[in-house]
Amino acid sequence: MCGIVGYIGKADAASVLINGLRRLEYRGYDSAGLAVLDDGQIVVAKAPGKVAKLNDRAHADWTPERFRRVTTGIAHTRWATHGPPTEVNAHPHLDQAGDIALVHNGIIENYRAVRARLESKGHHFYSETDTEVLAHLIGDCNKGDLFQAVCDALHQVEGTFGIAVLSAHEPDKIITARRGSPIVIGIGEGETIIASDASAILAHTQRVIYLDDNDIAVIKADSVDIRDLNNIPVTREIAELGFDAAAAEKGGFDHFMLKEIHEQPDSLGNAIRGRIDHNLGSSVLAGMGTSPRELAEISRVVLLGCGTSLHAGLVGEYAFEDLADIHAEVQQAAEFRYRNPILGNRDLVVAISQSGETADTLAAVREANQKGAFVMSLCNVVGSTIARETGRGVYLHAGPEISVASTKAFTCQVAVLLMMALKLGRGRRYSREDGIKLAREIESIPELVAKVILQNDRIAKIAADYTQNEHAFFIGRGPMYPVALEGALKLKEISYVHAEGYHAAELKHGPIALLEQGTPVIAIACDVPGKDKTLGNIEECRARGARILGIVTEGDHETAECMDDFITIPRCHPLVATIPAVVALQLFAYHVARLRGCEIDQPRNLAKSVTVE
Ligand code: M6R
Are 314 and 501 in contact (CB under 8 A)? Predict the structure, then answer.
């Protein structure tokens, strides 16, 4: 949520910052701005809308000489929390004297009280944001030492922040700090770049440092000095990123989402490779860090996540119960810490998050840790906060996911959950023979997915008949129920079609009242247990005029004939089938959105990484 970039070095800072913002735009894209140091002064450019508008504004207002001259600056792309996405609310914000500029990701919860206090001292505010209040507070604390002023100000605020601060009086440095919002520092040759995530850094260096909560750093072109908020030095390791700039490009596809859908055979290959033990019919997940005894003692699995990650957890719930005979339950991360979760040291809590930064999931992890559960994570972003706070877990290795709509992360999450369930299952009820068979199927997932992707053109043609509807229902049973939820989420978030996912049996308990002639019902009717009952539910919908698009198993002609349109997936284990089935729905949603002319990679009102509660 919101993207921050800061640069100090030898290059044209404004261009570096704008290019960095382009990489971070998926985090928020309702307004953008940058502040640079030019000739001892802070100069700001801002624009409502996307980074392209900021680029136009800066090039219109600033001379080419300025672009060549400035080598230090900070920038921001916003996802509005306080105040609408106007130019005046866009970051950076300045202090009262106009000498200090601040960009901020997060929420200052006590900003009203701080603002009132500063107003009584004569401060004047222009925006509705909490960030401007923090900028003024830093200015108010400044007695000639920017680092100390930022420390003092941060001691007075409650809430979350990832910040970068620039002062006209200390032009050789940028101060950055974090609490609850990520900051990565890239260490280049004679240049240092900071950002909310590594994708803005890739073009400059592979060497990065991830700040921890309550770290504050003084960034210079050739040095990084990290301390805590009490000015005590701390040591943070330098890590290698391990992926290059090409991984964050569209690579010839019209949209990142389409590219990421097509990448799934590879990303799944990366998630699965080296993690299957064919001999034991099990999986090897070293990151879980569990001894066989600890595994045997687990009495319950609690899966936590939001949005798509929550849906992956729902598939996991079926997998743990089916394969391992363990009581499993999914909990919405946002709700978790506000109820009274009953947890003990025999409960395995698995936090699922692509970004590893989702505020609700992070808060749930902290609650679970505090209650003494055995906590681990499934994250995609290496070094992310959730991955680090859980300490143990399994990385997805899906590669950077840029499109706001999650695709390859979901399928890798499900694949890893299947491997976890298989591992737990083999220590319990699941036989070696069955384990070997399932392990083989898991290993074949990339191939199964590739077969669905081959139907891309056909799916595009089918989608053309569903672009006029404003409502759609997705139905499924068993592990296909979460697939229905995920299919509906994909369609609604990128095409703005109102789509609802239901258990196939649930429609007749109310929602069926909404069916009219031609209402689309997308039925996941693969040849898995429960299919016949789903077929019955399909007939109930058809009798009310619905148009049925079925996801059916290859060769199951009888089922295909029950549908107005159908997409096939290869025959496979019911749990494994969730993955190709969802890929079919991803492509369907993509093409409906494309044909409706939507902004697929950056849908309205959304952001990729939701770091506010
Ligand atoms: O990074 P996370 O997996 O924790 O993100 C959770 C959700 O915000 C995310 O899955 C969201 O629902 C996506 N936009 C869905 O496509």
Answer: no
Of 541, 476, 478, nearest to 508 by C-alpha is 541
**Number of folded domains in the chain?**
3
Q: Which ligand 1 atom lies nearest to the CA of residue 355? A: 1
Lining ligand 1 with CB less than 6 A are: 306-309, 353-355, 358, 361, 404-406, 489, 493, 609-610
pTM of the model: 0.82
Q: Does a structural domain hold residue 605?
A: no
Contact 408, 263 (CB under 8 A): yes
The answer on 291 and 168 residing in a single domain is no
One DSSP character per residue, 288-337 reads: G---HHHHHH--EEEEEE-HHHHHHHHHHHHHHHHHH--EEEEEEHHHHT
Give pLDDT tens digits for 148-201: 999 999 999 999 899 999 999 999 999 999 998 889 999 999 999 999 988 899
Residue 608 bears catalytic tag: yes
Q: Do residue 85 and residue 187 come from a single domain?
A: yes
SS3 content of the chain, % helix, strand, coil (to 5): 40, 25, 35
Q: Are residues 271 and 233 in the same domain?
A: no
How many whole angstroms separate alpha carbon 53 and alpha carbon 148? 35
- pLDDT at residue 471 tops 80: yes
Residue 141: active-site member: no
Arithmetic mean of pLDDT over the chain: 94
The structure tokens 């369930």 sit at 421
Q: Which of 394, 412, 443 is the last residue of a domain?
A: 443
Q: How far is CA 292 from CA 87, 246, 287, 296, 461, in A?
A: 57, 40, 14, 6, 50
